[in-house]
Amino acid sequence: MPTFYFNIVSAAGTIADFEGTELATLEDARREAIRDARALMSQAVLSGKDISARRVHICDEQGGILLIVPFTETIRPFD
């Protein structure tokens, strides 16, 4: 099973994932990135912060970016 790395990127810099997570597919990694982004945004909102400009870079074992998941694309407007 491949290992995917979830780096959190913002204007201030990158928080690198050095451990990675073994998942079956890139789609599974995308779902994991969405869950992680939502959890991080939830914690930030409780602290009165907006981190929605951040994004998750899903990388392979060589550090190549496979997919970028913007935090803003992990939520949808609620009317």
Automatic annotation (TrEMBL):
Pfam families per record: DUF6894 (PF21834)
Superkingdom of the source species: Bacteria
Record domain DUF6894: where: 4-72
Protein name: DUF6894 domain-containing protein
Organism name: Rhizobium laguerreae
